[in-house]
Amino acid sequence: MTTIIIISIIVVLIILVLSVLTINKGYDYKHTIDPPASEKQEETRETK
């Protein structure tokens, strides 16, 4: 019975660490936005 509890605690700790690492990686991600459609069309006209 004791071994089951110890294994369960280890599994929970591993899942907790992986969750925290995933959340931190998400916060570190640099999000970008696309330019408005009108500016995008002007750029394509200029390059043609």
Write the layout of secondary structure elements.
Layout: H1 2-28, H2 37-47
Descriptive tags:
single chain; 48 residues; mainly alpha; 0% strand
Concise overview:
The protein has about 50 residues and is mainly alpha-helical. The chain has helices at about 1-30, 35-45. The chain is rod-shaped.
Basic shape = rod-shaped
Biggest β-sheet description = none
Helix content: over 70%
Which consecutive residue ranges, at least 5 long each, have pLDDT under 50?
Answer: none
Radius of gyration: 24 Å
Number of helices: 2
Number of strands: 0
Approximate strand percentage: under 5%
Order of helices and strands: HH
Distance between the termini: 73 Å
Mean pLDDT: 85
Structural class: mainly alpha
Describe the protein in words:
It is rod-shaped, with a radius of gyration of 24 Å. With 48 residues, the protein is mainly α. The protein is 79% helix and 0% strand. The model has no long low-confidence stretch (mean pLDDT 85). It has helices spanning 2-28, 37-47.
